[in-house]
Structures are given as structure tokens and as C-alpha cells.
Design brief:
Layout: H1 15-27, H2 30-42, E1 49-54, H3 58-69, E2 73-78, H4 86-96, E3 99-101, H5 108-119, E4 125-128, H6 132-139, E5 150-153, H7 156-167, E6 175-177, H8 182-205, E7 213-217, H9 221-232, E8 236-240, H10 244-252, E9 256-257, H11 260-266, E10 269-272, H12 282-287, E11 292-296, H13 306-312, E12 313-320, E13 323-328, E14 333-337, H14 343-346, H15 353-373, E15 381-383, H16 386-400, H17 409-416
Parallel strand pairs: 1-2, 1-4, 2-3, 4-5, 5-6, 6-15, 7-8, 7-10, 8-9, 10-11, 11-14
Antiparallel strand pairs: 12-13, 13-14
Bound molecules: adenine.
The site of adenine has 9 residues, from helix 3.
């Protein structure tokens, strides 16, 4: 099958390993499996070409299989140069006949070439994680804009970019913000990022977390998730925030809150999860202790000012895989993990399948809604319809064997009336 399918992956001989790991992920993705079984019968995506710019993992492979079962042609490229699982990519090509353009560690130029190779398929739908696909369409391939009917966006950073485009009136087609579904960010951003970020830091460093001063920049859903996991492993968690509300929340959750410059002096491990640039600046790096470990788990590798750090470093070398040592002129060493790219996917395997199950169920059902119902949408960013969110929660609970109560008619009436007694 691979011969007929256009692709650029590391090594097709990895396909067998990839297949077994994709099957392993599927065990924890019951909601997506149910959707795939229904899609296989009903073919709601027949005739649709989808370009998916996602982290190419075993979970993404299960999403691609689901979309294909629904009748779609799916082409996949990476949404980050370091997040591809080469075996999963190979299996998608060999076993599923899906065109994949993604190689772990690809350089900037290849990364964008792969996005363009996906767009060469003239997709009607874009599926993005960070909005790079949409960005290339709008900046370099505007002639194709009219061919695209709609898109979806997986992550907070992408949604922020797309909302800015919609606000400036330049967004070329409607997009559903999958990230904003409750069954996505309550679980994927919080529990997924929390666990997978710890996993990435530990796999990269093999360091003990207990007893460290663990500095977290950003107390959104992802930062909250990481803070609770770091505390659970015995770290002294320090939170840095710019939003006063989130900062109070961190205080009341029992964490120390301070400015990054102050935290820089005492932190052992640092992780940024903000979506903004230069969250840890050159001067913050200069204030750090010898041996400080610094990483990022936000979508783009812009949160750490690594150029600034490089400019004050006397030397740099790989200390071990995914750990780069920057030696300062006074002899202090700062260790940066995974080139400042999202550490959970660079050094580990990303979020566990159980949370990606809900995130990708949102992707699949949102696409079905867009394609089958063809709602009249403007060129704006839309939420996932509430009934899809609710249905995914119901299906997940069912798969987990958890039963919940239902309101009695009297309770329903009470909640809907202002006249019933207090
Ligand atoms: N984003 C974070 N974790 C992921 C995973 N396991 N698969 C795809 N995208 C992800």
C-alpha cells in the first residue's frame, strides 16, 4: 500500500512497531472507537479531503483511522518538528494508506515543506494544532483559500491566533475551536499536560522531583495541571502569573506566587506554559542558580529566550539526549530541555490516550457536524456545539463504567422556576 501513497516518513520498516503501539493507544480510546464504528457504517465524511497538521502520535493515528473510516481522504503533517512518533507515521502510511509528511527532528525548512505537501492535496477542511496550516494557507497559498470550507483547531495557542485573525477580518473560513470544548480543555490541558509534562521532564533528566523548587510560569489549565502533579511528587511549587485572578487562585491553591526574577534565583526546575514569548528572559537566565533545569510545555518554542541565553553562554553542549548545557562565563551551567520545544512531546509521548480520546472525539464529531449539517457559518471562530460536548462526556462515563443520577421532574421544575419555594 505504501508505494501508492505519497509520503515522507523516517522509515517504513517502523510500521509494525507503530501498529502495535497504535493498538495499545486504542485500548484507552473507547469514545473514538465507538465513533469509528459508526463512521464505518454511515460514511458521514464521504468525499471530504482533510489536511491534518497535528502531533503525529499513536493517538493521532487513531483519529486519522476514524476520519478515514468515515469516508474522508486524510493527509497528515506534523504540528511541531520534534513531536512526531516515526513508528506511528510509518504505520499510517503502510497499514492505513494515509499520506504522512512528518519526521521527528525535521528542520524548519522541511517542517514547512511538509505542510505545503499536505496542502498540495487541496483539502476542503483543515485540522490544525497551533494554526500553522491555516497560517501557510493565508500567507503563501491564498489562491487555495476559497477551496477550504471550514477547519478545526486543537489548542489554546492556535485559537488565540485564529481569534486575532477573525477580529482583523482576515480569516478565510469558519473554524471550530475544539480546544474550548469542556471535554477537551478540562482534561487534556489539565490532566494530560500535567502528567505528560512531568513525564517529559523525568524522561529527559531522570531527576528526583521531591524537594525541588519547581517554578511554573502560567496558571491556566495546563499550568494548574502541572502544578498539582509537581506538588503530588513532593516539589515546592512556585507559580509566576501576570493575570491577577489566576495569581490569587494559585495562592489559594496553596502555591507560592512571585515574579519570575525572584523565582529565577531559587528555582531548581522551571517550566513555562503561557503561550507568550520570552517568558523567561536572558536576565532571568542570568539570575539562575548553577544547575537550573529549564523547559517549556507551551505550544511554540518562543517562551524561553534561548537566543538571549546563547548570547551570554561561553559554551554549549549536549549533556544527554534532550538536555543542552549552556555554560555561562562565570562557570554556572543552565540546562535547557528539548530545545525549548514542548517537553511532553519532545522527550515523552504527549498526553495519555485516555484524554486524547475526548479531544479527538471532539475533532471527529465537529467535522461530522460541519460536513454533514453544513451550518451557515461566517468566517469566524465557533465553539464546539454543546450537545457534542455533552455526548462525549456521556460516552466517556459509560466507557468508564460510571453511572450518574438524573434530575427528577420535580427537581427539573425547581431549577426552571422562580416561583417554587426556597
Ligand atoms: N497533544 C498533546 N499530546 C498529544 C498526543 N498524545 N497526541 C496528539 N496530540 C497531542
Amino acid at each position: 500500500m505504501a508505494k501508492k501513497v505519497k509520503h515522507h516518513v523516517k522509515d517504513l520498516r517502523l510500521a509494525e512497531l507503530g501498529k502495535r503501539r497504535i493498538e495499545w493507544a486504542e485500548i484507552e480510546m473507547p469514545v473514538l472507537r465507538l465513533i469509528r464504528e459508526r463512521f464505518a457504517k454511515q460514511k458521514p465524511l464521504k468525499g471530504l479531503t482533510i489536511a491534518a497538521c497535528l502531533h503525529v502520535t499513536t493517538e493521532t493515528a487513531n483519529l486519522a483511522r476514524t476520519l478515514k473510516a468515515g469516508g474522508a481522504t486524510v493527509v497528515v503533517c506534523a504540528s511541531n518538528p520534534l513531536s512526531t512518533q516515526d513508528d506511528a507515521a510509518a504505520s499510517l502510511v503502510v497499514h492505513e494508506g494515509v499520506s504522512v509528511f512528518a519526521i521527528k527532528g525535521e528542520n524548519h525548512q522541511t517542517y514547512y515543506r511538509h505542510i505545503n505537501q499536505c496542502l498540495d492535496f487541496h483539502p476542503k477542511v483543515t485540522m490544525d494544532d497551533g494554526a500553522d496550516l491555516v497560517n501557510v494557507l493565508h500567507s503563501q497559498r491564498r489562491k487555495q483559500l476559497g477551496e477550504v470550507v471550514c477547519g478545526t483547531e486543537e489548542t489554546t495557542t492556535g485559537v488565540i491566533r485564529l481569534r486575532a485573525m477573525a477580529r482583523d477580518g482576515v480569516l478565510g473560513f469558519p473554524i471550530i475551536a475544539v480546544n474550548d470544548a469542556k471535554t477537551k480543555h478540562f482534561f487534556d490541558n489539565r490532566y494530560g499536560t500535567g502528567q505528560s509534562t512531568m513525564d517529559g521532564i523525568i524522561r529527559a533528566t531522570n531527576r528526583l522531583i521531591a524537594g525541588t523548587n519547581f517554578v511554573i510560569s502560567g496558571y491556566g489549565w495546563c499550568g494548574r495541571g502541572l502544578a498539582s502533579r509537581a506538588r503530588g511528587m513532593g516539589a515546592n511549587v512556585i507559580v509566576c502569573e501576570v493575570d491577577p485572578l489566576k495569581a490569587i487562585e494559585a495562592v489559594m491553591d496553596g502555591f507560592r506566587v512571585m515574579k519570575i526574577r525572584q523565582a529565577a534565583k531559587i528555582g531548581d526546575i522551571f517550566c513555562t506554559l503561557t503561550g507568550d514569548i520570552k517568558v523567561i528572559s536572558k536576565d532571568d537566565f542570568l539570575a539562575m542558580k548553577d544547575g537550573a533545569i529549564v523547559c517549556n510545555s507551551g505550544h511554540f518554542n518562543v517562551e524561553l529566550d534561548l537566543d538571549g541565553l546563547a548570547s551570554v553562554a561561553a559554551s554549549r553542549r549536549e549533556a544527554r539526549p534532550y538536555v543542552e548545557e549552556f555554560k555561562l562565563k562565570d562557570g554556572r551551567c543552565i540546562f535547557v530541555l528539548g530545545e525549548g520545544r514542548l517537553i511532553n512531546l519532545a522527550a515523552a509521548e504527549g498526553h495519555p490516550s485516555a484524554v486524547m480520546d475526548m479531544s479527538f472525539a471532539n475533532q471527529a464529531l465537529s467535522l461530522e457536524y460541519l460536513w454533514a449539517e453544513k451550518p451557515a457559518l461566517e468566517k469566524k471562530v465557533y465553539p464546539v456545539p454543546q450537545d457534542i460536548d455533552d455526548e462525549i462526556a456521556r460516552l466517556k462515563l459509560k466507557a468508564m463504567g460510571v453511572n450518574i443520577d438524573v434530575l427528577t421532574p420535580e427537581q427539573k421544575e425547581y431549577l426552571n422556576s422562580w416561583e417554587m419555594g426556597t
